[in-house]
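Page 42, continued from yesterday. The earlier attempt failed because a stray header line got pasted into the input along with the sequence. Redoing it now with the clean sequence only.
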Amino acid sequence: MSIIKHFTYVAYLMAFATFTCMLSSKSNAQRAHSTEKIQSRQVAQLNHNTTIKNIVLVHGAFADGSSWNKTIAILQTHGYHVIAVQNPLTSLEDDVAATRRAIALMNGPVLLVGHSYGGVVISVAGNDPKVAALVYVCALIPNDNESVVDITKKDPNAPGSAEIKPDTSGFLSLTYKGIHSFFAQDLSASQRDILYATQTPWAAVATTAKVKNAAWKSKPSWCIIGLNDHMVTPHLARAEAKMLHAKSIELKTSHVPMLSQPKQVADFIMEASEQ
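This time it went through. Structure tokens are written below.
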């Protein structure tokens, strides 16, 4: 083969390889776009009174996924597919990533439920196209460009805030008094002791991370307000529900209604799933 023919042949091979890569990239993009369109259609179909059967529960600070145990049991008996996220509480980004992984495991549209700081997490993760609606339980709910710190500035006199203490590693925990008097005061003493012993410390950096595009602006939302909540007070919770134009329910409960009144919480979640 002459040198000219050789280089012509090589050029042909390179051009063919480039064209093949372009086709492959285009095909991958089309598949991704097609998947997103299918998920969006599934969500849109819910406007025809279809019940959402997939529920992802997101815990807040000083807790873990087991805080939803009582509510999970009720939802499962009614045929719902439920996953409780185990947030690492190391950063907002890490917690959103953990929630997105749980959403991805669900087959079909998802009702995303967040408690306390979990309300911030679902306001980011809720932009996933599989998420059809949001439920906030005694939650911190951000507007665009707001962090946990920004939200709590709206209600600086929440009694429980003074019991959040930092350690030398940059993590926050609730004091014994905080758990017993302000976080879960309507649970038994033994239950409160367990919550204190098993709380997951919360990275302080998570409190300053700002939300860029709050999911509630494009997804229907529901709110549970605790009338005896000393962490997210009724004053703040009502203002948040008004901001969202959300359907809300008020319960005579502490900051943890999923533990003190799990049936009422489960009933409200199921109601939201049917809208």
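Notes: Residues 1-48 have pLDDT under 50 and may be disordered.
Reminder to self: strip header lines before submitting.
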